[in-house]
Amino acid sequence: MDYTSGSAENIYVPDAVQRAAKILVVGHFAVGKTTLIGTLSEITPLRTEERMTQASAHIDDLRGAPDKVTTTVALDFGRLTLSDELVLYLFGTPGQQRFVELWEDMARGSLGALLLVDPARLADTFPVIDLVETYGLEYAVAVNSFDPYSRHAEDELREALDLLPDTPVVYCDARDEKSSAQALIHLVQHLLARVA
Amino acid sequence: MTTPGEEQAVSSGFIRSYVITGGRGLPDAEGLSLVTLVTIAPDRQQPPNPSPEVRAIWELCSGGYLSVAEVAGHLELPVGVARLLLNDLADQGHLMRRKAPPPAQLVDRKILEEVLHGLHVRFG
Hints:
The complex is a heterodimer of chains A (196) and B (124).
Chain A: E1 19-27, H1 33-40, E2 46-51, E3 72-81, E4 86-94, H2 100-107, E5 110-117, H3 126-134, E6 139-144, H4 154-161, E7 169-172, H5 177-195
Chain B: H1 14-20, E1 37-40, H2 52-61, E2 66-67, H3 68-75, H4 79-91, E3 95-97, H5 109-123
Antiparallel strand pairs in B: 1-2, 1-3
Helix pairs in contact in B: 3-4
């Protein structure tokens, strides 16, 4: 295979880049993690898999795909070159408790997490918040809402999710570049405030 | 990318990984993280009789820097398998890497400021 010519995009990180940073995009099944990553990534998002050494006892949320027991989990990720020296990777990280082993690996070295929330499925977000907090990740909440009429009032949502007062909540449309970028910017501003 | 099948398994089976790695256990993330940037060092000779996977990594990684995760993604290998094969190449002196960022507890202001600035420039 020839990876350097003839293809529509150059897949390589620019030569001068010295460092890579990582931000996790977390959330429950089908909340839009892959969509948001695809919206922001400069490369065609890639998918790989991590293998869990422990078999899971049950699969509870692959709705419509019963009995599909697997010990591997797909990771979707994308890349953004942010300066001559720095690239940022966005990793979609599934929010099920049974993936704790994966989370250990994913959380290590992460700057923080963007927590995607579907306002119609708030309860599905609780286990994800547990995981984020277990691994000590700083996070911002991005409510992925296409329909303004289904938007919870922000304080209702804060109360439902039991968020700290300084945890940012931002509404976004994961299909929209500006809106998704804005959510990411809110997260990084929050992270900066926390290290100040 | 609008399909909701985010957590579905990709493809490869256990047996395939077992064969590729020669039955060795997969290394943990120490050393090569998901975002460690790697490339084949210039002027290196490919090891004799490489496996198809090692040959594929060699060809892919000779073109420039990629993260460990990207190597796995492009070659459709599980991360652990790609990491093991890259570790082998590193042990043999074939691999160059950029240093990874420090762990989360040591995240410094400078990287965050650089990320924020970069996002503002990129997305206005």
